[in-house]
């Protein structure tokens, strides 16, 4: 499926789930997401992590509402399953879509300005360097006898300064390679927007609408 339409359908379904209380649709979306993840050959460790984290937070939320005693069992089930819907839908997108394909699709199909597309791709690719920079800053602080915790503002201030330097270097590199904002550009790889992509898009939304209509009181 086209990455832009895939992102759009997931966002729209998540928004609809947020404003409805049909737990059967939530369970159906969870099952569909789990099947897609298994077909994508997701690692078992990743799948367990995607299940354990929402299970903890959803369980804590439901337990706190049960202690207050003012929530119906139906509402508790809706909240519990809704948390898994968000996580599994997001995972189906991230596990089946390459960031480069998404960037190309947003630029070509959604007509996103190229500077935003390349900025998104650059930010994604800088994540490993940012993690390495955080480790370097913490190690340098330890050598001075200073412990920088996760919540230490000094740690992130230094990393932000480094990231700003990287952004300037990236802008200079793009300019030196002939990038001109707003100029006509060709594409090394074209992301097609086929008719079947629209069929999947409309069909997915239609099925959710049917489920919500049948499940509403």
From TrEMBL:
Membrane topology type, per the record?
Multi-pass membrane protein
Which keywords does UniProt give here?
Membrane, Transmembrane, Transmembrane helix
Q: Gene Ontology cellular component? A: plasma membrane
Asked whether the UniProt record includes Transmembrane helix among its keywords, one would answer yes
InterPro entries per the UniProt record, alphabetical: ABC/ECF_trnsptr_transmembrane (IPR003339)
Q: Does the keyword Membrane apply?
A: yes
At the top level, the lineage of the source is: Bacteria
Q: Which residues cross the membrane?
A: 7-40, 46-67, 74-93
Record localization: Membrane
Pfam families from the UniProt entry? CbiQ
What is the official name of this protein in its record?
Answer: Transmembrane component YkoC of energizing module of thiamin-regulated ECF transporter for HydroxyMethylPyrimidine
Q: What is the originating organism of this protein?
A: Levilactobacillus zymae
Q: What is the lineage of its organism?
A: Bacteria, Bacillati, Bacillota, Bacilli, Lactobacillales
């Amino acid at each position: 499926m086209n990455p832009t339409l895939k992102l759009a359908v997931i966002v729209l379904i998540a928004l609809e789930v947020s404003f409805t209380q049909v737990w059967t649709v939530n369970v159906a979306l969870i099952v569909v997401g789990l099947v897609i993840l298994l077909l994508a050959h997701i690692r078992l460790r990743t799948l367990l992590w995607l299940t354990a984290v929402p299970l903890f937070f959803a369980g804590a939320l439901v337990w706190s509402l049960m202690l207050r005693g003012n929530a119906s069992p139906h509402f508790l089930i809706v909240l519990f399953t809704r948390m898994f819907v968000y996580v599994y839908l997001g995972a189906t997108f991230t596990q089946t879509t390459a960031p480069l394909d998404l960037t190309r699709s947003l630029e070509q199909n959604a007509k996103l300005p190229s500077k935003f597309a390349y900025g998104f791709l650059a930010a994604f690719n800088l994540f490993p360097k940012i993690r390495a920079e955080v480790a370097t800053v913490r190690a340098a602080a330890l050598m001075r006898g200073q412990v920088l915790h996760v919540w230490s503002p000094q740690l992130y201030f230094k990393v932000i300064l480094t990231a700003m330097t990287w952004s300037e270097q990236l802008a200079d590199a793009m300019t030196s390679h002939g990038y001109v904002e707003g100029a006509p550009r060709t594409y090394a790889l074209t992301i097609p927007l086929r008719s079947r992509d629209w069929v999947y898009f409309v069909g997915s939304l239609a099925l959710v609408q049917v489920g919500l209509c049948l499940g509403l009181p």
